[in-house]
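ping. complex inputs:
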Amino acid sequence: MDDLVIARSLFGTTMGFHIIFATLGVGIPLMILAAELLYQKTKDEDYAVMGKRWTKAFAVLLGVGIPTGTIAGVQLSLLWPGFMEFVGRVMALPFQIEIYAFFVEALFMSIYVYAAHRLSPWMRIVSVTLVALGGLASAVLITNVHAWEGTPTGFRIVNGEIVDVDPWAAFFNPSFFATAGHVALTAYTTGAFVIASVAAFKMLRAEFGSRIYKFHRKALMLGLLLGGFFSFFSSINGHETAQQLHEYQPEKLAAAEGLFETQAYAPLAIGGFTDRETREVKYGIEIPWALSFLAGNSFDTVVKGLNDFPEEYWPPLFVHTLFNAMVGIGSLLILLALMALFWNKFLKKPEFPKWMLGLFVTAGPLAVLAIEFGWIFACTGRQPWTIYRVLSTADSVTSASNLTTLFVLFAAVYVVLGVAVVLVMLYYFKRHPVEEDLYRADEPGVPLY
Amino acid sequence: MSEQLIAVTILWGFVFIYAVMATMDFGAGFWSMIYLNKEQTKATNIANRYLSPTWEVTNTFIVAIVVAIYSFFPGAAFTLGTILLIPGSIILLLLAIRSGFMVFSHVADDYRVALTYISGITGLLIPGFLIAVLPISHGGFVELESAAPSLDLQALFTSPHVYSFIGFAISSTLFLSSLLLADYSKTAGEPNAYKVYRRDSIILGPISLVMAVLIMLTMRNEANWLYTNMMEQLPLLLLSVAFFVIGGLAIFVFKDRHGMKGVPRIAVIAVTIQYLLASYVYGRAHLPYFIYPSFTIEDGFTDSASFQAVFITYIVGFLILFPGFFYFWRIFMKDSHVREDTQTE
Ligand code: HDD
Ligand code: HEM
Ligand code: HEM
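pong. complex structure:
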């Protein structure tokens, strides 16, 4: 295989693995914060127990999230030295500021976890807020680099030299806010639905009305409520992200939608496969005029098709499927939350039927899948560029060859860590069931921490 | 000071802080493995108590170093990235295993022994590979003239100079961490653990010094330019040795107020100053080269506008983070709290 392909696969695998832990690293602290606040407000010990158990899970996830993130950061310079040389000159700020976010997260995470027994409730809330802010800031800042790769600003190229560098103009590149907002909102969506999934799974196994059932029910409702809220705003803001593509990276949007002819009143193709030979989407459903409306808020918006671009600039066409899957999952998640709300608040039924709980169980894994699809779409859809129309992927890659061994080794380590983290998590929560924590919480004189 | 010099000083500062924190971190992990079966001394317990809250913070410094390199010296990014691909990847793989399994070992009690062994051993290998970056920068093992720079791995791993660096890294890791843990266990009021770590540090101190001398001897053959530059600062080197002696006396001979042998706090401070002086001498002698002889700090330097923006974020970031670090230190390192934790156990 060619070295460029292996480098791309290796980096893509690293990112695909890191993002699972990173997203949860942003999403779960917000859930912990919500539980801590609810506990202070309602004095219902169940929320304190939730906070404690989610923190434990989070601490274990950090054990993988931090080293894989470190790998991601270092691998960027090892595999894509050409790219990092460019970034160093123009776009170093977000990386630099991100370091401070990491420090904030690491310092207060340790304080929150290892000094729990020494903190006042107020200081606990401050600590976990700082952890959540640190995680959010790292996501927003790293996404900023990704946003800038799509809409590079803050420099000019004259005779192959980078001149007139303006680091803050690069920092506030046009797609920064929409993209960073999307990543933040979807991370919260994912954190909330993952919590809801686990709760629904436990409810399936608990007896209706039991102490355990009630405990998990509270967690489920919290997860669904926040998940529904954030997924709704994710989709509004995802729409804005797509409009950014329309404006700044039209061939990426065209590939995502499988559009070949430039046209006003463009139809939206849902599902199906893009066929390079016949230049059309096969087996898809077409909604007339919808794409033009989505791209520019009016039906007569002219949407550029792939035919306007030389074929070597086309992103891979399978991104259409990834994009559809992400949007599909996003819509489904909103529906799931609405369904729960309807059942619970309007029909006033206290018990969720098994089939519905079963659906809730799928929500968390689906959200994680949507994150994966979204990122693979965003990064692969930028091909053949690492910096849009400025630096090609082929010019970014290391000149070292024989990367296959490294690819195999890294993949093996991710498999080992992935399997181990699941086993450790199952082991721990089996050894320390909710009953134990509920007992500690209920019994006066026995500290929860 | 020129912008380049400011940048390289910041970078050197990060490397020094990381070197000290990482030796403590990897060393503590190793000791917690060695004393795993000796429950009564509490030595493992002490090591873990130090390690648990600090490893994330320590780890962040590696990232800070890497980011500082490519934001200040992007021109070096290409060369460094290419020649360090293999050693860098080995370090990353070890680091992933080490951090992951260390966290797992604190959670899965039944598998603690196996998990601690994996993280303890991988953790001790990391400093050895990390320090290999230094002899690589001395220039003998890299081919920079061709379009694709490359590293001669075979020459690297057959060079006595490289092995003296590796030996130094590993012995220093064990030395510094045992000294620190001696201090920590004394503060925590754990006399048994203290005795163990005091003994270890007394054995390892002289070994580290021998390794350091070995580095100088091999450097004379393999990187004579650096040796000459370092020898020009002989008084500072001797001062560094003097601090080593003070540290040694403090742990071996001095007695504290209660007549107990060893004043580890003084030893830790003296030995840290020793390393600070020695690495200052090394860093200064290395200038202006990033990679000898073809890559200087001028060559790879970033755009001035970027440097200034980044430099300002350093100052602002430091001001914001300082209270956080202070609070962290108060909670985990302050004597009264360390003691309090022993009582609540
Ligand atoms: C739970 C996850 C999730 C969900 C439900 C959605 N997205 Fe998304 N999407 C992401 C998770 C994600 C992501 C993984 O976070 C990406 C990858 C890169 C990025 O900026 O965010 C992304 C990227 C991304 C992009 C590409 C940005 C780029 O290339 O820079 C677009 C156009 C959309 N999304 C649009 C949407 C729309 C219209 C949605 C409607 C429901 C939607 N997303 C739901
Ligand atoms: C964390 C979620 C992410 C995932 C799952 C992901 C996935 C991928 C994949 C699959 C590739 C290979 C693309 C291909 O060659 O077809 C890739 C490449 C790349 N990504 Fe991402 N990515 C993520 C985040 C980011 C971010 C935040 C950045 C910005 C710093 C980034 C920068 C890059 C670069 C520079 C490349 C290499 C060059 C290229 O192929 O364009 N990625 N990523
Ligand atoms: C947009 C996708 C990403 C998100 C949301 C994200 C988020 C996070 C978060 C929250 C953490 C803290 C650890 C955790 O909770 O797991 C983390 C760790 C880390 N991430 Fe990512 N990250 C992303 C992509 C990247 C990329 C592309 C890089 C490489 C340039 C990277 C580099 C790192 C590093 C170096 C760490 C370790 C920090 C430490 O040592 O404390 N991340 N990431």
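The longest strand of chain A covers residues 156-158.
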